[in-house]
Specification:
Rossmann fold; 11 helices; 10 strands; alpha/beta
């Protein structure tokens, strides 16, 4: 579904990523791990078009999407949920969700996608008329992910969904994501995560980025659990 080929990217003259290549298959969950400042979020921003790559290619299905504007990439079926959430605090849960369905294809499937979001995150169903700014951090994270799904995404780029949250809320979010994979056939997720345990329970295959370069690719569900591996690649 997603094929990133030798991408180098950054912020103006400051290069952050060097020759990154990775793949996400249809219906697959793939994790990207790495220490703070490794370039994980920059990778997601480059895929979605917020950052323009210096060189390399990105394909979504058969279409090349690098260099395309973000709104066009979203219309192709790629959506991004950032750790910062970027919700509209004075708007209700439902209003925030509606903002995610801005393209024509998403508007045509608005009710179907809304029901999907409310199914995987029942707390949002209970709080549809509550202002987003009055919700807990975990509920806001659910809302941010739900809004990204309202764009009728086929691939979700998910940036550190557990950041700053209590374990019970992290569990609720991952349970919702597992439910999403079960009910939406062929749906894929590229997950950037700091919590190694959560990532390895959700995704079997993954990549580790350090200093803007991929240093490991493989079966993270088994390999990452060794203390030697954790120290060598993740610095813990």
């Amino acid at each position: 579904m997603l094929n990133v080929v030798n991408i180098s990217s950054g912020y103006g003259e400051i290069q952050v990523l060097w020759n990154i290549s990775l793949q996400v298959g249809e219906g697959e969950v793939v994790a990207v791990l790495g220490p703070n400042g490794a370039g994980k979020t920059s990778l997601l921003k480059t895929i979605i078009g917020i950052l323009k790559p210096y060189r390399g290619e990105i394909f979504f299905g058969s279409k090349r999407i690098d260099g395309q504007p973000t709104e066009k990439i979203v219309m192709e079926g790629v959506s991004l949920s950032l750790a910062e959430k970027e919700l509209f605090p004075q708007m209700t849960v439902r209003e925030n969700l509606m903002l995610g369905a801005f393209n024509k294809r998403a508007r045509n499937k608005l009710e179907e996608n809304l029901e999907l979001v409310l199914d995987i995150f029942p707390r949002l169903r209970e709080r549809q008329n509550q202002k987003a700014g009055t919700m807990s951090g975990g509920e806001q994270q659910m809302l941010a992910i739900g809004r990204a799904l309202m764009a009728d995404a086929k691939l979700l780029l998910l940036d550190e969904p557990s950041t700053g949250l209590a374990p019970i809320m992290v569990r609720a979010i991952y349970n919702g994501l597992k439910r999403l994979i079960e009910v939406r056939q062929g749906f894929s997720i590229l997950l950037v995560e700091q919590r190694v345990k959560d990532a390895t329970e959700f995704a079997r295959r993954g990549y580790i980025i350090a200093n803007g370069r991929i240093v490991f690719e493989g079966d993270i569900a088994s390999d990452v659990r060794s203390s030697e591996f954790m120290h060598r690649y993740l610095g813990v």
